[in-house]
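Protocol step 4 of 6: structure prediction from sequence.
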Amino acid sequence: MLDTSTQPTGRVTQVTGPSRRTRRGRKVAEQVPRHLRAHLTAYLMIAPMVILLGIFVIWPLVYAFYLSFFEMSFYKDAKFVGFDFYQYVLTDRTSTRRCGSASSWRSWSYRRSSSSRCCSRASSRRCRSGWRRS
């Protein structure tokens, strides 16, 4: 609101009115938005889990990714190598063969464990896969 009454100099001064308050006495600007107030309890219950997840999972992953750009030794200072390690792993024949054998081992062990679960439920009867419980 501008007050232009009774001042002969022609200057305009800013007049601030009383601050608006709600029924409970809080200022309007200090109120929490409605969508946050409606779910405040849920946010407070999830907050510790999110904080712990960030500390024990997300931060170590980010830090490990950062450290993967350095070559480190106990006796020497860390040396920045950039994407050289990633290039080495993707172009080396030995590492690609190892990734292939690891994935085949994973698939074999998964098939084996799923068939053994089937047989443990079947007691002495035959399972669909033909395995017999020993």
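Step 5 (inspection) to follow. DSSP finds four helices and four strands in the chain.
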